[in-house]
Amino acid sequence: MAKPATPNRSSARVVQLRKGANLEMVRLTCPDSAQALKIAESFGTALVDSDGIRDLHERLIVETADSLAEGLGERAMQIHLQRIVGAFVGSAHGAGQFYSRAVTEARDATAKASNDARDEDLDGPVGYDGAAQRKREFAADMGIQAHSLRMAAEGAVAAYEQVVGETWKPFDRPVENPGANLDRKAAEAQMAALG
């Protein structure tokens, strides 16, 4: 005997979202102005004009919006600026993550080099830097780059708020059922192999 139909249940569909980087994530991974200044002083690198970078990027986005104002409606402008600002924030976040990994590698190499019993981590021949020093210098360069991109992102976010009148938030993209697509593709490949 057949089972009676179950009462209608609304089939709630869970949509996974791919989270975009936000300004807080950038601030957590990229050096601030004080840390960038310490890096520049400690490693003898050029000082970057943090406020100048931020202001320039804010003006850039505002002027871009002004030039597009006649051709774009309010919603189209918001979408366009959402994407542009998202690119600046995403770039800064990626640089911040890369900087964090470089710092970790520099710390590890420096800790290994401080152990006198390890010959493989000793400095190179006279006139050449050791591996630990090169990793520290690389991390310093990445820190300055990440800081510069952070300032650009902060300027872009400030411009978005100025033009659109709302605080910028990352666009969270829905993930389109990645498992089902992969399973279907695998099944097709298997069936093709069977002939």
Task: Produce the secondary structure layout.
Layout: E1 17-18, H1 23-29, H2 33-43, H3 50-68, H4 74-113, H5 131-164, E2 173-174, H6 178-194
Antiparallel strand pairs: 1-2
Helix pairs in contact: 1-4, 1-5, 2-5, 3-5, 4-5
Protein name: ArgG
Concise overview:
The protein has six helices and two strands; from the N terminus they run βαααααβα. With 195 residues, it is mainly α.
Give me the side-by-side strand order of the main sheet: 1-2
Shape: flat
Report helical residue fraction: 55-70%
Average pLDDT number:
82
Structural class: mainly alpha
Strand content: under 5%
Give the count of helical stretches. Answer: 6
N- to C-terminal distance:
40 Å
Sheet with the most strands? 2 strands, antiparallel
Uncertain runs are none
How many structural domains does the protein architecture include?
1
SSE order: EHHHHHEH
How big is the Rg? 25 Å
Structure, explained:
The protein is built from 6 helices and 2 strands. The protein has 195 residues and is mostly helical. It has one domain.
How would you describe this structure in keywords?
single chain, two-stranded antiparallel ribbon, 6 helices, 195 residues, flat
